[in-house]
Amino acid sequence: MFNPRPFAAAALTLVTVLAGAALTALPAQATEPPQPSKPAAAAELPLRDASPQSASAQVPTDQFIVGLKSRGNIASEAAVTAQAARSAAGRVGTAAQYVRATATGAQVVKTGKSLQGADADTFLAALRSSPDVAYAEPDTIVQATATAPNDPGYVSQWSLWDETAGIRIPGAWDYNRGEGAVVAVVDSGITYHSDLTANVLAGYDMLSNPDWARDGDGRDPNPQDQGDWSTDNQCEPGLPASRSSWHGTHVAGTIAAVGNNSNGIIGAAPAAKILPIRAIGPCGGYISDVADSIIWAAGGTVSGVPANPRRAHVVNLSLGGVSDCSVTEQNAINFAQNAGTAVVVAAGNSGHPASEISPANCQNVITVAASGLDGARADYSNYGSAVDITAPGGSNMTNENPWTGIVSTSNFGSTVPEGEAYELLQGTSMAAPHVSAIAAMLISEVGSTYTPDMVEARLKATARPLPVACPEGCGAGLVDAAKALALTNQDLPANTVIPAAVTFSDKDGTADDTLTVPEVQGVEYVGFAGSVFPAGIHTGSGTVNVFARSIPGYTLMAGANIQWSHTYATTSAPVAGSLITVTPFRALDTRTSSIVAKDSTVSFQVAGRNSIPAKVSAVVFNLTVAEARSFGFVTAYASGTARPDASNLNFDKGQIVANSVTVPVGADGKVTLFNRSAGATHLLADISGYYREGEVTAPGAFKSIEPKRFLDTRSGTAVAPDTARAFQVAGANGLPETVSAVVLNLTVAEAKSNGFVTAYPTGVNRPDASNINFAAGQIIPNSVTVPVGPDGKVMLYNRSNGATHLIADVSGYYLSGTPTAGGTFQPLAAPTRFLDTRLFYPLAPDDTTSFQAAREHGIPAGATAIVMNLTVAQATSNGFVTAFPVGATRPDISSVNFDRGQIVANSVTTPIFQHGGVALFNRSAGITHLIADVSGYFLPG
Questions:
Q1: d(CA 168, CA 151)
Q2: Residue 793: which residues within 8 A CB-CB, separation 6 or more?
Q3: Fewer CB in a 10 Å sphere around the end CB: N or C, the chain?
């Protein structure tokens, strides 16, 4: 009986090993064809015949997919999912929020930080333990971007990205990557590979000949490729020995190697799943086994074999031999066709008409010829009327230029499997999986209504001519993934539709805020509660979520966007006195120049740096003292003005200590720092934002003033233990009669006992928060932003067992009224605790935790920054903490410095950007606890 063989066997296809060993010689050619430009070699790949490299670590992600056990309305599903996600996130010290529903009915949640390894496992386990959750999985594939993936071998995958000779896959990735599609690879089986395993389903071994199976039995549930090596004369008289090809693994990698995992290569459809079916052994495979494989893959019944739980949408057959199409083959292919499974086959490598090769000459298949990097039909590729389309298969591989082949996943073993590897092959076996991947993406994008005939017609209609003419017959031309996936309603099956996008017009809180719902036949648009939005223009406010759904008799295209969301701004453009945040940067570090001498000043430039305008009214920065040679204090003030009688930071000899400073900027765009001590010291300044210049009139805008002393209990009596002292702010020292909040530098002096101080507005209950922690006898300052009570006063509470003196120097205030302009300040009713790691786990050395600020405790989505008091407690080593926005690159700055065992606090004004969260990095050799008390936020805009 005729036994089909893979079309990349050594006798048929040049196999090039990615290593320094000698390469298989090319067959003699009468004329050497012109050589195209050489693709870059991917030196990072673990190459066959070279030493293996270790597999890459699990890919981190900050999004997860959750399926619920029962379906309700959209609003209830969102609420249930959000509750489960927040509870699970607490197990790993982060926050989580609901994002959206998917077309499959699952829900997407986002965590406050990327999770991987043990953290991801803990988060997923907690989600899965919820009684409402059916399943939870990482959302690791980035969708809708043509940006080059980070897989190091991608530079050598010319067949994917080359505009002339490749399939132009980056343009197709803007639409789809094969999500939900299953491609059956009927081949030699599959080997373990870290670049494949996440996309491989449980397949089957259909080899009925136990001698060929090499696993001790015939058919079984293990599709592992045991190796197809052969000895001299084993398969045919005169046929020499050959090593194992790992053909099925190579084909599978071309289709669906995992992408964007910083490992190896990427498949053409990296989100598709591979269903491996072993039907080829060392000497080929029986047609009856191949036919059973096709039927089983397509969801049919095969006697003695369990049902296939994941029907394939595409079957790839990179195999065949010289024969007419048998009745058995055709019947199996017809079954797949009728079941909605497209069958893609290789045309063969004999350089003859494909009509001589089975199953390429069967009906209801998509037969694929091969082309090379030069764009011409590969000289080995079959051709003629039986060919439907052409795809890159590699050609003209030489010792000097092996990279004109197709690189994909492989194995180091010469006989049995060993370590994972990558390998270059050429053949129609390599061309067919490119087409299978595009077919899978089409079915994923359109849905189950897209039949195999429609897939074939679309591939042919969007193919482009080969760069080099193919008079022998190369079908419709070179397959073009980008054109194939650029579908419109006219390209879809009857009554399958693409919803048009809902558009939003946001005029910053005005009556012109609208959303426009399009009119599309077969589609209606609904809100969270299921209410229908008629086509037309509607008033928009708050957060609006709109979903598309089909009406009876219609089906939405599976890959279409069906959800649109927008949060309307409630603010106008920033005004004078609005805070504009910047990515924190170091503006001064005297350690790189000269130390600041005793009773001397140093100035640093603010205006005109790092996107800061040439004119600003004030700046927010973190001031740090280091290597002080005596105790003292630092005063910050506008360059060119008289030095005020105030302190911003007190320090002891040898201490590293920081404090937040908000200070006016001089006419020359600079800030001056004065070192009042008997010794020199180094000073550092890390800028996080600035206030816009101009006349300050808007509610919530900041007005800076020359620092003035509003309270100094040393001129009277100290604040007794567990008592509060109020002092007047509004109407005092030239301040307006009404202000919403005040920025002051609070200093503790002559403390009789350890303790802390809480600042809060009069007229409210004292919050569970601290603004400054102190030890007996210590002089320590901290910047405080605190709301002002209705009587214009601020309350300071001494939580300690001894009396202490308190000094308050005010450097600015926020205007009263309801803020509406972007960047203006809205104080919380009282400082509110957003994070306290003492309730769960301390932060490990060189580790990051985060908390969600936006959409919590009244802080709106889109808020640009928050003001918080950050406290370090129970530190087991010296170090510092850096606060920065979730999703941003960690800046080279410190927000609070600490010594082992010290409890130290610092005020931090930090941007929160689009994710709405704050990340906190512990740069120390020990664990520490962190507490964050937020006093207010800056409005979006």
A1: 17
A2: 726, 727, 728, 729, 730, 761, 762
A3: N
**Which residue type, as a one-letter code, is found at position 22?**
A
Q: Are 264 and 151 in contact (CB under 8 A)?
A: yes
The catalytic residue positions are 187, 247, 429
Instruction: Mark which of 567, 602, 624 sits at the end of a domain.
Output: 567
Rounded CA-CA distance 875/262 in Å is 35
What's the total number of domains in the chain?
Answer: 4
* Percent of the chain that is helix, strand, coil (3-state, to 5): 15, 35, 50
Burial 279-295 (b: 16+ CB within 10 A, else e): bbbbbbbbbbbbbbbbb
Contact 6, 242 (CB under 8 A): no
Distances (CA, A) of 119 to 60, 289, 775: 10, 44, 36
- Residue 190 in any domain: the answer is yes
Range of the domain at 203: 5-54+148-487
Token pair belonging to 870: 């950050």
The sign of the CA dihedral 229, 233, 238, 241 is: positive
Q: Give CA–CA dist 37/323, Å, rounded.
A: 38
Q: Hey, is 368 helix, strand or coil?
A: strand
Eight-state DSSP code of residue 419: S
CB 586 within 8 A of CB 892: yes
List 250's β-bridge partners, or say none.
none
Question: Taking the model in full, what pTM does it have?
Answer: 0.56
CATH of the domain at 432: 3.40.50.200
Q: What is the mean pLDDT of the chain?
A: 86
First to last CA, the chain: 75
What is the tens place of the pLDDT at every residue in 66-112? Answer: 888 875 555 567 777 877 887 787 777 777 777 777 766 778 888 87
Residue 228 lies in a domain: yes
